[in-house]
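Pilot study result, target chain (99 residues):
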Amino acid sequence: MKQFNIYLAQIVDGEATKKVLIISPNEMNESINTVIVAPIIKFSGQYPTRLAIKLNAETQYIVLEQLQTIDKTMIKEELSTIDESTQEKLKSILKEMFA
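Predicted structure:
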């Protein structure tokens, strides 16, 4: 599981899987049994904490104000990754949020 990769995760047992982006750094991902993720949704208003991405030819949104820590066993399938330009935008938003 790598930082900036998009996965399907089953956040709640028995519920449908949801798309998430791993935010936690690779060093952390390799060392402990949890990862920090941001949910990805299809519809969003304009918020400074949401980042639009193209996924499967659709605009979707990384929701950075809803970060959560989940157990790695909840991760089910790798879908994609975000490009370097998007990674830099995401880091900038996180820096602004936590500075």
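One observation from the pilot: The first strand starts at residue 5 and ends at 9. A full batch analysis is planned for the follow-on phase.
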